[in-house]
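just leaving the lab so this will be short. what follows is a protein written twice so to speak, once as letters and once as structure tokens for the fold. can you read through it and tell me how you think this chain folds. thanks a lot i owe you, the record is right below.

___
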Amino acid sequence: MRDLPEYIGEWPNIAGSEPLIDEVISQAADKPAYLGKTNIDFKAVKSAYAIALHMHQPLIPAGGDDLRTAGIISNLQYMMEHQGVGDNHNAPVFHHCYKRMGEFIPQLVHEGKAPRVMLEYSGTLLHGLRKMGLDDVFDSLKTITCNPEYQHCVEWLGAPWGHPVAPSTPVQDYRLHIKAWQHHFAAIFGLEALERVRGFSPSEMALPNHPDLAYAFVKSLRDCGYQWVLVQEHTIELPETGLGPEQKHLPHRLVCTNSAGETASIIAVIKTQGSDTKLVAQMQPYYEAKGLSHWQLAGKAVPPLVSQIADGENGGVMMNEFPDKYFEAVRACSGTDTPIMNVTEYLEHLFALGISGNDLPVVQPLFQKTIWDQFNPGDGPEKLEKVIKKLKSENHQFHMDGGSWTNNISWVHGYEDVLGPMEEVSALFFEKIISPGLPTNEDRYRNALFHLLSSQTSCYRYWGQGIWPDYGREICRRVHDILVYDY
């Protein structure tokens, strides 16, 4: 299997090999990624747990004093160069956090233990690390990703390349983020490693709940070969009642229907509770799983899977307490009836029992029952928008902004000055490049795509007003100029 170059000219390899990527993923779809490669006796498992580490640093126009001409660099590089400002002194610790699982996994394997971890790195982080010359991070990660002795312990989760918020990112652009990450990951770790990427982790755990956007989100994931998606428990509901799911530690089927009556579905693995790094840093999922036993699913007794994801580098607890707690938990659970497992590994064992995707309980995005009570799928987008407008006027808690790991931050309200330029250059990109079907393997295409995807990073909204929205608007300005003058 041929390798892809990590960089093509100045730009990371984020486009140009779509047919090859699609072929590799399609051929791998029916092949198990982990079943038969691990020694877990699933029938003896009473309960299990899974942890995922999310890693991200945005790209910012801060490589110089003038915002309009400053080079686009990693926020980590800015932190390294300005360690006396705020919490920037954490930058060297962050650097170690990005590579430390490549040290922990081999150590535990050589102890005879059975470690597991799921990793999710944004494309902007990967590019920033490489441009900083931090090749030790990649060397460490390649050891556990590509070495057959360790690769069964590590599951990579797909992600949108630029860390965008799905509910408020143009649909066609979100698909470009998905494809760009697949290109970039394959270029770094190889096409064979990409074959094993079956699950998807949306940035900020953001799930669209507008029917048309939710359908497009799930369809994009399925079209790009993903088999399951991680969702936050507070972003979904049961279609029958509009309430949250009861058996949160079993996989569900996320079913999304649009205004035209089209339906797309994907397996949903539920992350419980809010985004608190203490949950993963102190290995809370293990201790919760220890108190559980078999649950009924499709007439079979199966082990529940307690699943959590958290930032892998942020916060003192994650930086300082996680290593010892991870070693402690893995050493304690290895070989027991409450092992640590990765999600795809768990699902492959589950389906080997004769359970199918159609046996899983159904969930849908938040507030959709309220819509379906007053709207018939197939009645079209215009009628849907009228129904949504009516529901908003009747209930101030009803919204179509989507759900995420937090319900006290809006990714839309107050950020019109960021979303406006973002939507304008997205429309221009569609007009100039996507609609005419221009080739994706050109340098100018990668240039435009790199800037477009970088401009949609959630950090330009998460960090509030001030310099961060300025960063976002500046990158949008550069996208505009590239599209106007290069095309």
Q: What stands out?
A: Residues 171-189 form the longest helix (19 residues). The chain has one domain: 7-364. The mean pLDDT is 94. The first strand starts at residue 7 and ends at 8.
